[in-house]
Amino acid sequence: MRLSRYFLPVLKETPAEAQIVSHRYMLRAGMIKQQAAGIYSWLPLGFKVLRKIENIVHEEQQRAGHIPLLMPTLQPADLWRESGRYDDYGEEMLRIRDRHDRDMLYGPTNEEMVTDIFRSHVSSYKDLPLTLYHIQWKFRDEIRPRFGVMRGREFYMKDGYNFDLTQEDALHAYNRHLVSYLRTYERMGLQAIPMRADSGPIGGDDTHEFLVLADTGESEVFYDSAVTDLTFGDRDIDYDDVSQCQGVLEEFTSKYARTDETHDEALFNQVPEERRRVARGIEVGQIFYFGTKYSEAMGATVQDKDGNKVPVHMGSHGIGVSRLLGAIIEASHDDKGIIWPEGVTPFHCGIVNLKQGDEEADGACEALYKSLTALGLEPLYDDRKERAGAKFATMDLIGLPWRITVGPRGLKNGVVELTCRRTGESEELPPEQAVTKLAGIYEGHMVRGL
Ligand code: ATP
Ligand code: MG
Question: If you count Cβ atoms within 10 Å of the first and of the last residue's Cβ in the chain, which end, N or C, has fewer?
């Protein structure tokens, strides 16, 4: 993309309404625009990152064997009356009446609807196990929408639902989700710690929340610092293998890590003192096992091997896709702007032309642009007639992990400068080598954007 032709409405001033750094930088980098309290337009740069995050979630869900579908945002109230949640959900549910006076709602989640799909089409244990998921907009009429996309009213969420014959199978689905979530967050450059949590209105006993540590997080968290040493890495997990998934779950959840809702002071005190941490975290996902709560209420049954009709065991699993943009920025920024992890960056590198209009500099930038693009990388070429300082400031603000700086002086010696956004370190090297180096860095991080 050439910056002169892109739509990147960066702001010079820090918007007064933004209280936390991710919200400030998302507004300043021209990623979002607020349209009403907690409701945002996603401008091109923000939309690009949103799609990358979404695509990582899709890839990892499908790797775990989960099947994508798409359910609507508007739902009939009658489905929610069946489960009893139409009245229970409270003020957060946006209720709408259509022209025929039918009660509708903008879905805050989809347990009822997916259970309805299941009961309409599945009747035998032979069709299990089954996990269906979608990534769709949700609406919750939050009392205090704030922090930009972190607590919106309209927000984008991956929600998945498993249907299993037995509790044992459903617990495997739970473990499988935990494992696939660990991998998902790591691919986004995030450490998200699974913590025992309360289940809230979804209901059920088994639940973990995934929290990213950040001072601006809304949850207070208590953990054994040993959990932050754990990484998923490039393990090759067989998601059908019950004991492998169980093993990973035990590894990642055996150390003390809880939110304030389930915090147990006595247990916490058993952690060696020097490893006890009290901090704040951002919830980026949650998994639940809730047994037959919805299947019994809504008649989602299958015939088992002996021909008996039994309610299926279910769980639901959510990732806050739009909240993740804020969480990633909270975890990765400096005083100049965002620092995108390679896995989710909107463009793979910036190209800064120090002397736009100079034949040699223009030619070198065009050549770089072409070779990077030919390798499937997406550069953002700042081809504006602007001061170098302004170009650097924009690149730093929007946070591309790598920048190639091209100027007549370097070109005389046959080199360009490759700069790492995170460390600020630069090296001079011939343009072809810069391209090869970037191709190497992004190997394994190529996520489709837009
Ligand atoms: P919270 O406790 O933050 O209100 P929740 O526990 O009600 O969230 P879940 O039902 O578990 O949310 O939804 C799954 C994920 O969706 C959450 O982990 C979070 O990342 C995201 N999410 C929930 N509410 C919002 C919101 N208002 N804005 C943005 N993302 C949200
Ligand atoms: Mg939650």
Answer: C
Please indicate whether residue 286, judged by its CB atom, sits closer than 6 Å to ligand 1. yes
Helix, coil or strand: residue 101 = coil
> Does 320 contact ligand 1 (Cβ within 6 A)?
yes
What domains, with CATH codes, occur in the chain?
Answer: 3-338 (3.30.930.10), 349-442 (3.40.50.800)
- Averages of pLDDT over runs of 10 residues in the chain (450 residues) are 97 90 98 97 98 97 98 98 94 97 98 97 97 98 96 98 97 97 97 86 75 95 97 95 96 95 94 97 96 94 96 97 98 98 97 97 98 97 96 98 97 98 98 97 80
Instruction: Match 């770089």 to its residue by tokens.
Output: 368
**Do 202 and 114 touch, CB atoms closer than 8 A?**
no
**Residues with Cβ within 8 Å of residue 239, at least 6 apart in sequence:** 63, 64, 65, 176, 179, 180, 245
* Neighbouring residues of 367: CB distance < 8 A, sequence distance ≥ 6: 431
Q: What pTM did the predictor assign? A: 0.96
Residue type, 409: R
Residue nearest (by alpha carbon) to ligand 1 atom 3:
283
Can you read off the two tokens belonging to residue 5? 């032709």
Residue 222 has what pLDDT?
97
